[in-house]
Every structure is written in C-alpha cells, then in structure tokens.
Amino acid sequence: MGKFKYKFQMYKYLQMNIPTIYAEARAAADEIGIPQELRGKFGMTGGISGCPAPLRDDIMHAGEEAGKTVVPLAGMVDQIRELVKDIYGDGYDAAPTSTCEAGLWVTFDSLFTPPMMGRGDNYRARYIAPLEKHFHHQGGYGRPFPGRYKDIIADRGTTPGELGFFGKRQNNLDTLIVPLAGAHYPVHGIKFHPVPLLTKVDAEATYSEMKKVAERHANMITGMTSLGYETPGYGYAAKDEDGTPVLQKLYAKLCREYNIPYVVDNAWGVPGIGHDIRKSGADVVIYSMDKASGAATSGLIIGKEDVMVPIRRAMGMHGDRWGTTSSYGKAAYVTFDPGKEALATQIQALKVLRDNPSVYTKSVDDLYDVVKEEFDKIHPTIKAGLIISKSYNSRAVEVNYENTWKDGEMGLPIFSIEDMYSGTNIFQTGMAQMGVIPTVAYDGNIYISPDLATTDSKGNLLKDVFRYGVRAQVKLMEIVAKHVGMI
C-alpha cells in the first residue's frame, strides 16, 4: 500500500479526516436508503447497558403485574433459584443483583479478598486475570501486578481515578495480569493503546503459562477470573466436542489444582443456552440479565452451592440468624439489591429459557444469515481477513477483522477500547452519523446482536430493518478502508 510508513501516522490521518469520513458516511446512509423515520431509533445491539433494548411483551407484562402484586421478595428470589436448578441441577444456586457489575463486586469480595476480622494486619491476596478483552470489568478489582500493567485500564470510564474504576479496587487485593499464549498486544487506535488480538490463542500453552504464575504466587493466590464468551475474537476458538471452549475448561482445571474459585464474567451471555457451568467446570458465572437475556436492568450470579453460600450471605439472601433457608435482609451488599420488577422479569426470562429457548436462538440464526449475506458483498480485500462466528451465548454474531493485518501490510484500522470511551472509534461514531446506534466494535472485533428496535414485541428479527444496519456497517468499513489506502 505504502500510504503510511508507520501505523501511528495512519491513525493521525484518520483523526484529521474525521469530518470528511462523517460526511461520506451520511451520504452512504442516503445511498443505502435508510428511512428517515428509522434513523437514530435502531441499532446493532441490544446488549449495551447505556442504551438498553425495548422489553419483549412477555417480559414487560411480568414486570407490570409484579408492580401491582404484594409478594415477598425472598419468595421471588427462591423462584429464581428453582429455575436455575431446573436448568443446571440441584448442585447449583443463584443470587440476583442490581447489575452484573454488582455481581462481580460482591463475588470478588466474598471469594477473593482476605478477611478483615482478626488481630493484626490482614494479609494480601492475589487473583489471576488473563489479559483479554473487557479487562476493566473482570480485571479491575485489584491493584495490577506486575507494575508494568498499572495503567492498563487508563481512561476506560468517564470518571477514572479515586471515584471511578480505580475506586472499586478491593482491600489488600492484587490482580495477577497474565498475557495469553499466542495472543498479540500491538498498539493501535487514534487513542493509541495496546489492544488484545486473540484469534490465535493457544489454549494448552496458555494453561502452562497460567500454571507458572500460580506456582510463583501460590502463597497469595485466592482465585481466578475470565470472560465466558465463546468466539475466536475473545480467544475461545478452540472447543471440545460439546462446544465448550477448551481454555475455560483448563482455567477450571488450574483452579481445582490450587483449590481456588474460578469466576466467569459472562455479562453479555444468556443462562441456559450459552456458557454451561457444568461443562466448563467454573465455580461462578455472572450475567447481565438486561443484555442478551432481555430482562429489566439487573444481574444474576449462578454458581456451585457451596461457593454461593458466602455470596448469598453477603447479599442478605442466605437465611436469617434464627434459622431459615432464605431471606431478603440487610447485609454487606444490601446496596446491590434488585427491585421487585427486575426480579419478576428475570423469572420470566428464565422460564422462557427453560421451556422455549428458541425464542432466544431463532433471532440469532436469522441475524447470522443477514450478516453473512451482507458481508459477502464487502470488498474482497477486506473479506479475506474476516472471521464471522455465531454465538448463542451472547446472542450475537462476531465479525473479527484482525487478520486484515498480515505479511507486514497495514489492514483495516483497529480501534482501542480507549477510542470507544473517548469517542474516537470511527466504526462506532461513524455509524451514529448514518443514523444507526452502534455496537461494541474495538480491538479488531465487531459484535452484532438483535433487539435494539430490530426485533418485534415477540422477539422475532425484523430482517429488513436489521439489514439496513448491517449494510451501514459494511459501507462504513469500506469508506475507512479507502481512506487508509487498503482498498
């Protein structure tokens, strides 16, 4: 190509030419024919907390009916427990929370941090967090170790610092940050930061590296966490015969060897049809129930019964002092209680996932067909570097383009997560110029999912509406590729 000698020059050029790219994107929206009445009112994912998807009719009805009913919240939590046991078996339990992040917080504090009671100073503890995508969530609860990673979270939030993401770091807890074998961490983006590129992760070699770290820190290690996703762009391409990511099973194996809990952050996941805790061997899986599951804003912790006891106690859900099997009381994390309407919508979502999961899976099948059809039309130079994968876990289709960078050639620009938070990710901001609410699109990965006014009130995909958004994404990628001289 030869347009740029160094990649930072390419990103500098993109930053300088954002107004031109936006103008071309707006013109492309007219060319595609996106109706004016749709612009700004539909999008490429219902899985973002900042712009939640409309609720399905059955979910909405459940919340409304609960609002009119007198019902003890402890009884509603027990209904959720029963549904989780129906799906996974009696060896598993559950605790609903106000958000998924709340679920991470209470779980890490219950399972990973050292005790505060006792004479003298308490010890320090450390948990392992693979250096993967979304690191500011599952990796943000301790002080980074080694020190080279102390700025790894950087500006990933509107209020970083004492009252932002740094403020959630827990008492005497460190995060052992370990790169994945076979992954690459080059620097990319207008906001120039390292990005995890994970399509070539080697599961067995990563397990060996994690074990070395565990051995070095054996006297301090108290847990391990990872994402629960299942696609190549997140490092989980290798799967066993049941479709379970091999890497997650190896993480669970390592944790059994050291008698520490393995906690899976599966925020953009769905119970029942996605990550199977029984097959992966994880101890706890945490969901954002308002993302792919389509409930009202809330989180859900699912885990092995013995591990769930301290978590449920911290939530005030594990029985009163005088002896009951469950309660809805005041405990350390009472601030994370979900409301009655949220509990009702979780119950409805879990009932559908148990009894009629095709309500959730059919829209993914239809979505995948549309994405494949439209991306088949993208410029062949771009297409050659794409990996397109379907995920029932996240109810999404992943379009990964990190392989457009090969043989020393510059490929399609890779925007860092710092770009997303600073508003310089053109694959998101450019979509907004076209009247399409964007999806998660950083680290060489684009996650496309339904529900943001692209499904009807029953959960069926509105293919014609959705197709406008996919065409816009394809066209924007081509516009940017032309600007950088890739095509």
Strand order, main sheet: write it out.
Answer: 1-10-9-8-7-2-4-3
**In CATH terms, what is the fold-level topology of the largest domain?**
Aspartate Aminotransferase, domain 2
Helix and strand content put the structural class at alpha/beta
The global form is globular
CATH level-four homologous superfamily name of the largest domain: Type I PLP-dependent aspartate aminotransferase-like (Major domain)
Question: What is the helix fraction of residues, given as a range?
Answer: 25-40%
Order of helices and strands: HHHHEHEHEEEEHEHEHEEHHHHEEHHEEH
What is the CATH-assigned architecture of the largest domain? 3-Layer(aba) Sandwich
Question: Approximately how much beta-strand content do the residues carry?
Answer: 5-15%
Number of domains: 2
What is the radius of gyration?
22 Å
Number of helical elements: 16
- What is the overall pLDDT average? 95
CATH class of the largest domain: Alpha Beta
Main β sheet profile: 8 strands, mixed
